[in-house]
UniProtKB/TrEMBL annotation:
<dbReference type="InterPro" id="IPR036179">
    <property type="entry name" value="Ig-like_dom_sf"/>
</dbReference>
<dbReference type="InterPro" id="IPR011390">
    <property type="entry name" value="IGFBP_rP_mac25"/>
</dbReference>
<dbReference type="Pfam" id="PF07679">
    <property type="entry name" value="I-set"/>
</dbReference>
<dbReference type="InterPro" id="IPR013783">
    <property type="entry name" value="Ig-like_fold"/>
</dbReference>
<keyword id="KW-0732">Signal</keyword>
<dbReference type="InterPro" id="IPR007110">
    <property type="entry name" value="Ig-like_dom"/>
</dbReference>
<dbReference type="Pfam" id="PF07648">
    <property type="entry name" value="Kazal_2"/>
</dbReference>
<protein>
    <submittedName>
        <fullName>Insulin-like growth factor-binding protein 7</fullName>
    </submittedName>
</protein>
<keyword id="KW-0964">Secreted</keyword>
<dbReference type="InterPro" id="IPR036058">
    <property type="entry name" value="Kazal_dom_sf"/>
</dbReference>
<dbReference type="InterPro" id="IPR003599">
    <property type="entry name" value="Ig_sub"/>
</dbReference>
<dbReference type="InterPro" id="IPR013098">
    <property type="entry name" value="Ig_I-set"/>
</dbReference>
<feature type="domain" description="Kazal-like">
    <location>
        <begin position="74"/>
        <end position="137"/>
    </location>
</feature>
<dbReference type="InterPro" id="IPR003598">
    <property type="entry name" value="Ig_sub2"/>
</dbReference>
<feature type="region of interest" description="Disordered">
    <location>
        <begin position="121"/>
        <end position="141"/>
    </location>
</feature>
<feature type="domain" description="Ig-like">
    <location>
        <begin position="139"/>
        <end position="239"/>
    </location>
</feature>
<dbReference type="InterPro" id="IPR002350">
    <property type="entry name" value="Kazal_dom"/>
</dbReference>
Amino acid sequence: MSLAGENIGQEVVLLYHLNCHSCLLVPSYQNLASGLQHEAVNQTLGEMCKEQCMPPRGEACGGGGAGGGWGRCATGLECRRRRKGLPGACVCKNRYPVCGSDGLTYPSACQLRVASLRAQSRGERPVQQRSKGPCEQGPSIVTPPKDIWNVTGAQIYLSCEVIGVPTPVLTWNKIAKGQRTELLPGDRENLAIQTRGGPEKHEVTGWVLISPLSKDDSGEYECHASNSQGEATASARITVVNSLQEIPTVKGGEAEL
């Protein structure tokens, strides 16, 4: 989307491009470092563009360019150079995720600022930074456990990946007859629970390890994740047989040995 204003100064055309996060003065003013110097510019449009008429993210910056330099970076950016005498590049000062007032998580404050300008161009409220770090969200199941068929005496495991902000607490239950749940591991000597963070930030992976497998281990196992924003569950069934010949040829794509 673009906003255009004509007859500003000496036949200057102002093009405001939200998609590339920059302003361009054509044809009389090519030096982006000069900023807007024209009082005739509409006040609202001028305020939106004033800071964006400096080099945006990824553009050249610093001294030594044509006309005396490549200019300073826009607000929220800083100029980083690799070699002396060569232009630097405008990069975001704070490159950590932030939570916006719209409830969305942005990779950086710079990208939140772009979203805010877009919202204002549509006549909507600007997006403010609510907090550093991602927005809080209830748990969701990234990878649910899968059904397992195996023989008595075997060693098996169920796994489950969950994510949420704050990082969820992951527990395992066995759903017995009558929907009664048993918090694992309980006092079962052949069963162990392991949990670790990752592989991504705010993600947790948990396992149920059973060895040796017995008929009593048959049943439905539930992965349960919870944090201050809510909870989520996923379940899988373990079926124990006496021999491999008893395992059906077709068990569905989600079943494992």
